[in-house]
Amino acid sequence: MAGQHRDPTTDRVGRPAGLRRRGHAGRSVSCRTGLANLALLVVLLVAGCQEPTREPSNVEATIEARVVATVVAFQLRNPTATPQPAPTPIPIVTLTPIRAATPTPRLIVAPTEIPLPTPTTVPTGLTQTVSHVVGAVVAINTPAGTGSGFFFEDGLVMTNAHVVKGFLRATVVSKFNGINLGITGTVIGVDEELDIAVIEVSKNPERPTLKFGDSRTTQLAEDVLVIGFPLSNILGEAISVSKGIISSKRNIDGVEMIQVDAATNPGNSGGPLLNSQGEVIGMVTLKIVNEVANRFFEGTGIAIASNAIQDRLPSLLEE
């Protein structure tokens, strides 16, 4: 304030100067002291939150040493057994069940009944043999009588000598394509002792011929066939077949003969005696006659053996 005199010993408000300094200095000291105390408190709090570092305790070392000693003593009292190898486990295969396939349903259709055709008889055995050979069998006609014969080669006919005896020519009747054809033939060879003769006719390669078999291999009771034209002067020129067996094998006047029980009658002379294969094993030549009663003995047909015929045949063809 203007006009007032400021006493150096007092402040602006009239307080003693010394007193003001002491009060200010006292506040400064108090502030510094409070800050120091606060810092100390913070340090103590931080120190209290941290675990104090301490050296290892001797108690823990002691306990560890005792445990080790106990384990060692136990092992000394109970030595460890040698481990045995564990057995190899048996593999167990787990079978996965397979589901059976479901069968596919099939449509079964009832068969339609088909009428069977009427069976046709098929030639078998002797029947089939006959069908193959009848075309080679012929009838022989001369002014003196009739007989039978057969083609053994193309253009050559075999018959009995007594059928063509005394004649140089004979009519050979054969069935060809279902028609009976009469062909005039020439007698080119005769053996009256053996009772065989050969007639030659024109050749025809389509005409069947018969093959000679081995009469020495024939057996008693073997099935045979006799084919010819018996009683053709009475019954006509129709071929006839009779079946029988070989009853006996004989030698008559040095000639091999075969006795059969097949029916033989006048007109069968010169016809073939066949086995079941259709081979010529003989040629019918005679039938035993009871001269007293003028009757034939049944079951006594005689045929010249085929081997005897073949032995004489070359000489007949050379005449």
Descriptive overview:
- With 319 residues, the protein is an alpha+beta fold.
- The chain has a domain at 125-318: Thrombin, subunit H (Beta Barrel), CATH 2.40.10.
- It contains six helices and twelve strands.
- The longest helix has 33 residues, at 17-49.
- It is rod-shaped, with a radius of gyration of 74 Å.
- The model is unreliable at 1-29, 51-56 and 116-123 (pLDDT under 50).
The structural class is alpha+beta
Strand order of the largest sheet: 1-2-3-6-5-4
**Series of secondary-structure elements, N-terminal to C-terminal:** HHHEEEHEEEEHEEEEEH
Question: What is the third-level CATH name, the topology of the domain at 125-318?
Answer: Thrombin, subunit H
Number of helices: 6
**Assigned CATH architecture of the domain at 125-318:** Beta Barrel
CA-based shape: rod-shaped
* Overall CATH class of the domain at 125-318: Mainly Beta
Strand content: 25-35%
What average pLDDT do the residues reach? 76
Return residue spans where pLDDT drops below 50 for at least 5 consecutive residues: 1-29, 51-56, 116-123
Gyration radius from CA atoms, angstroms: 74 Å
For the sheet with most strands, the description reads: 6 strands, antiparallel, barrel
Cα distance spanning the termini = 208 Å
Classify the helix fraction into a percent range: 25-40%
| Secondary structure tally: strands | 12
